[in-house]
TrEMBL record:
GO BP annotations listed: transmembrane transport
A cellular component term, taken from the record's GO annotations: plasma membrane
Organism: Pseudomonas wadenswilerensis
Keyword Protein biosynthesis attached: no
The gene coding this protein: dppC
Key words of the record: Cell membrane, Membrane, Transmembrane, Transmembrane helix, Transport
Entry's family note: Belongs to the binding-protein-dependent transport system permease family.
Protein name (Swiss-Prot/TrEMBL): Dipeptide transport system permease protein DppC
Transmembrane segments: 24-47, 90-113, 125-145, 151-168, 199-232, 252-275
Bilayer topology annotation: Multi-pass membrane protein
Domain ABC transmembrane type-1, residue spans: 86-275
Length: 286
């Protein structure tokens, strides 16, 4: 007479199998990121107050039922500003990754495929950019261009492309000597078709995974430059600038810094888990 496994053992087995195959990590990261995306999209309907509305009578009010995250030094509802700030920070994380990804992918692919003098020149340029600390170089560019989101995106593109270029170049150097690349050239395919139609699609795996991990760094850098006053300018709600505004009240009104800081940590953890889960899942299929 056969006995069916107990529900507890079955649940443990499924959780262990999902954890080993990266599904649990992937689902947790995806849930966190999608949750913040949903909050950002529904901010006009979810946020209980106008994030810019000031109320002098409610300055530095502690968390309560009316204001679950309290109010800041201008009487603005912190919960509403955190929800609306998700729009700005998600935009910074996504756009701040897209431009370096596209620029670095094109430069790295062309450099690795052509080789020779062009490849040496690109590698020396990458060495020069890497010789400077990432955040210091980005702050220097933003100081020249002026504060604002546009300057942040330009600085991220000019500094962040080098990592993608190195990843793509190393993959192209290997793939261009493979059998399918030699077959494409022997069939008379153009260099553009061989590179962008056959080599590049097979070289994007590492860059796509790194792109998700890089979103964490972009998010933290965006919060850092806003904290320093070079990113998003007040009164626009942004988590880094909210932490900067509340630092003077950290002992008397801890909630002004705490909740935006937790939002940054939560979204960064979501992107990190998503990148790990995608890497494990795609690694199992490759």
């Amino acid at each position: 007479m056969s006995h069916s496994p107990s529900p507890t053992l079955s649940l443990r087995w499924r959780l262990g199998w999902n954890l080993r195959n990266g599904r649990l990590t992937l689902y947790c990261g995806l849930a966190i990121v999608l949750g913040w995306c949903l909050l950002a999209l529904c901010a006009p309907w979810i946020a209980p107050f106008d994030p810019l509305m000031q109320n002098g009578e409610l300055r530095l009010a502690a968390p309560s039922l009316a204001h679950p995250f309290g109010t800041d030094n201008f009487g603005r509802d912190v919960l509403s500003r955190v929800i609306w700030g998700a729009r700005t920070d998600l935009q910074m994380a996504l756009i701040g990754v897209i431009f370096p990804f596209l620029l670095g992918t094109c430069i790295g692919a062309i450099s690795g495929y052509i080789g020779g003098l062009l490849d040496n020149a690109c590698m020396r340029l990458i060495d020069i950019v890497l010789a400077f600390p990432f955040l210091v170089l980005m702050l220097a560019i933003m100081a020249i261009l002026g504060p604002g989101l546009g300057s942040f995106y330009i600085a991220m593109a000019l500094v962040g492309w080098v990592s993608y270029a190195r990843l793509i170049r190393s993959q192209i150097l290997v793939l261009k000597e493979s059998d399918f690349a030699l077959a494409a050239r022997s069939l008379g395919f153009s260099h553009r078709r061989t590179l962008f139609g056959h080599l590049l699609p097979n070289a994007l795996f590492g860059s796509v995974v790194f792109c998700m991990s890089d979103a964490v760094l972009v998010l933290l850098n965006g919060a850092a430059v806003s904290y320093l006053g070079l990113g998003v300018q007040p009164p626009t709600p942004e988590w880094g600038s909210m932490v900067a505004e509340g630092q003077s009240f950290i002992t008397s009104a801890w909630w002004i810094c705490t909740f935006p800081g937790l939002a940054v940590v939560t979204l960064a953890m979501g992107f990190s888990l998503l990148a790990d889960g995608v890497a494990e899942r795609l690694g199992d299929r490759s």
